[in-house]
Sequence to fold (776 residues):
Amino acid sequence: MNVVPPPIKTDPEQPSQSMYADHVTVYPKSVDGPVRRVKWAILFVCLSIYYLLPWLRWSRGEGKPSQAVLLDIVHRRFYMFGAEFWPQDIYLLTGLLILSAVSLFLVTSMFGRVWCGYACPQTAWTDLFMLVERWVEGDRNARIKLDHAPLSLNKLARKSAKHLIWFGIAFWTGGAWIMYYIDAPTLVREFWTGQSSAGVYGFIGLFTATTYVLAGWSREQVCTYMCPWPRFQASMLDEQSLIVTYQDQRGEPRSVGKRHDGNTHLGDCVDCGVCVAVCPTGIDIRDGIQLECINCGLCVDGCNSVMKKLGLPPGLVGWDTLADQKLRKQGKPREVPHYLRPRTMIYMAALGVAMAAMVVGFFSRPTLAVEAQHDRAPLFVMTRDGGIRNAYTLKLTNRLATANFDLSIQGLGNADLTVAESGVAEAPVLHVVGPGDDVVAYRVLVHVTTPALENGSHKFNFVLKNLQTGKIATYQSVFLGPGIAN
Amino acid sequence: MPTDIEKDEISGQYTTGHEWDGLHELNTPLPKWWLYTFYLCIAVAMAMFVLLPSIPWVHSYWHGTLGYSSRKVAMAEYAKMESLHADASRKIAAMSLADIRKDPALLETALTAGRITFANNCQPCHGAGGQGRPGFPNLADDVWLWGGKLSDIQTTVTHGIRSSDPDTRYSAMPTFGDDILTAQQIQQVADFVWVNFYGHAEPGVDTAPGAKIFADNCAACHGDKGQGGRDFGAPPLASHVHLYSESRDTIVAQVTKPRLGVMPNWGAKLDPATLKSVVLYVHSLGGGEE
Fold:
């Protein structure tokens, strides 16, 4: 049997190929245009929030942190402006993560990789580091020249200056991260006076190093090789998603060095290479949709500026959907992108549900709560006079600062209460001081002298009343006595 | 079988030179720095092999140059907890029971220690949570044989009841069935206790003879109103709580040939801090008196 192998040619000029590729440095050229300006604006807003938010103060009264946004792990409280979160509210964090994920899915299926191109921290800090690089070393050609030049005082000075500034930004970035966990002014004072913990120095060092390496050195390598998101977001994209594309039916054949003489058909692309030069990931958008493309649209700005000079209409490189592109190739009119399609509607519905659950969850957090756990052994105790005593572990939760409470019982006749080992005499209403902004457990003894129980048990409510606010919390528990069914 | 490196016309990529039944593998190179991180990981792993316990020998293992062992870490943690515990123990041993109660943090420590001590030593007889069982008093109710104040409980726990301790609490109810009272008299006094103190209506039963026998023989310890006598560890009879069980036969049996409970003198076994802790715990169960 003769099997004919597929037509594969041996290239005599490239007899051996390495299994590992050398890193090709990308030298993105600066570009100006609406897209670039939008990117600068987003970068400015996002990074300003990141760096400045920890310094925003918020008055919460005595004994409370005065930082507007503070994740106080040590004291187990998260502060977000007027809201205060307890560890019990962790489900809200789960909700927030779900919300973020679904939002990302929705935005991606509608507008493509806008997250990657505009809002991703890797993109923002890389942009910032490139800005510094351009400012110190010059634009694309100057940088290529400098990198290939032999070591000189000028090269040394420029390289040192760049890395020094990079390091400064990285340090500020790493430090700002810690400021979300430790009061910012305190952290700065303790950091420079050597009073911070080893953990603080360690984490600031770690985040400084990661910022410096990821934004200064790794850049597009993070997106191409490290980030999982480009790999699986393909499942959110379809032919209706907006992507940055090259209009090959208009651009081809490329007309470099040729004149439009009317005889031969020539495309609008003059093969100037600006789209490749400005690309921060170093790809050629004209090769079609690629994993490496973060959809930042800088090539759109680049190409449009060239088209303007040539007097040709813009949009040779621009946002488009694959479906639309196909229609145009067939000579059919453009279609408005189908933003509403089953995929996006499902994402919107999921987003709506998650958001509603979050809002309900957030506003229904109780400021006052009482929970009771009945003692297991003994279930009840008979007293000498024939009365019955039950013991409960009561957990009082109070999110307000100061509080005086009355603890009483509802629906159990003439019950008397006391706290074990408190030395306080039994009384129908128990006055409790505190807990202020805390959870406190008490072992409470409930004594009924003439119990009326059905089948050895009786349901009743613990009632906790905040004497300052008048707010009441109740918890249904059960009182047990002789005759209880085992 | 690696063959020649070839160029694929369709993708423009080179192959790895591997070929299986006509299938050629395209070479999609990994970035070199990624390869170097693998090398780095190997180097770190080798360093950890040397620094940390790693290779098992036949009878021992390579301990590592740092001398790390997870057991050492655990024991250090344990020693730290022990020293914390020792501080609290010293305080509890030095302070009076009343003062410990005034220090909420120390009281919490003592009650926790007391709960564990109780479970290890007292629970077999007195039951979980001090709920008691026939012959072994419930410690959570308001009936005490020898007293329910902190000092009373401390004495009882330290010296025991009818124990080998010279200062033990001691009393012995006479064996009335042994020629002190006749069988008929015992039935009569049982009638009296059953009706008057336990509160069971028995129409047609004459309690007068029993009342006289009670006054002559029992009231000295159990009280003329059956209120009990803590000086003698005599249980109250006018009560809804009974040490053995609530039946007339039990009264007869107890009068005829009393069972006398014994409790060990824990002062010989428990250190002062532990003993105080368990006293506080018992006091906290619900029946503690001021």
